[in-house]
Amino acid sequence: MDTGKQGAIAPIVLVEADGRKWYRRKRNIARIGIVLFWLASSAVIFAMYESIERTVLWSEISMACAALLIFSFFVSYAYRIARTTRLVKSRFLWLLAVVLGVMVLYILLMAGQALLDIAAGPVEKQITVAERWDPRRGGDNITTTDGGRYELFSEKVEMRKGGTYKVIIFRYSRKMVGLEQVAP
């Protein structure tokens, strides 16, 4: 006997058992806050900066917000499971939740550095290259004679060891966005 319900799609529950709607849950409020933070910071970046500076700052903010959104699913899932399982299993899950929480703090630190770069703006500086990392080592970085270590975002001039360059850097995220050779 066919009841007509076998192929039916289950209704979407928009109200929890305790009466809260989906947008009033803590984890969803945090996710909405992350998206609003990304939108606001993107608007500020597009209003204040042009060209390569805009690209660097927007990629940093977007990456941090995307990572926070992804981690919000893992952390809330691990916390919810750890609360409802036996003690032996929950020890591991609590450890997992703590490790994920530390990772989230690191991502928040990266977002904070990007916000400081947005507020402070790029800085023009003259540097002398002490060491140039091999890009196969995991990044295109340089070390300067004054001890600074910067990541090259885009390179129009080939930087050589011992060369002096006028560069545009973001102080907090240590990204080098523009450069011009002063002396070989």
Based on CA atoms alone, the radius of gyration comes out at 24 Å
Give the overall form. Answer: elongated
What count of helical segments does DSSP give? Answer: 3
The tally of domains stands at 2
The quaternary structure here is single chain
Can you put this structure into words, describing what you see?
The chain has helices at residues 26-48, 51-84, 87-120, and strands at residues 123-132, 141-144, 149-152, 164-170, 175-183. The protein is α+β, with helices and mostly antiparallel strands. The protein has two domains: 22-120; 123-183, OB fold (Dihydrolipoamide Acetyltransferase, E2P), CATH 2.40.50. A five-stranded mixed beta barrel has the order 1-2-3-5-4. A hairpin with an 8-residue loop joins strand 1 and strand 2.
Short description:
By secondary structure, the protein is of the alpha+beta class. The chain is built from 3 helices and 5 strands. The protein folds into 2 domains: 22-120; 123-183, OB fold (Dihydrolipoamide Acetyltransferase, E2P) (Beta Barrel).
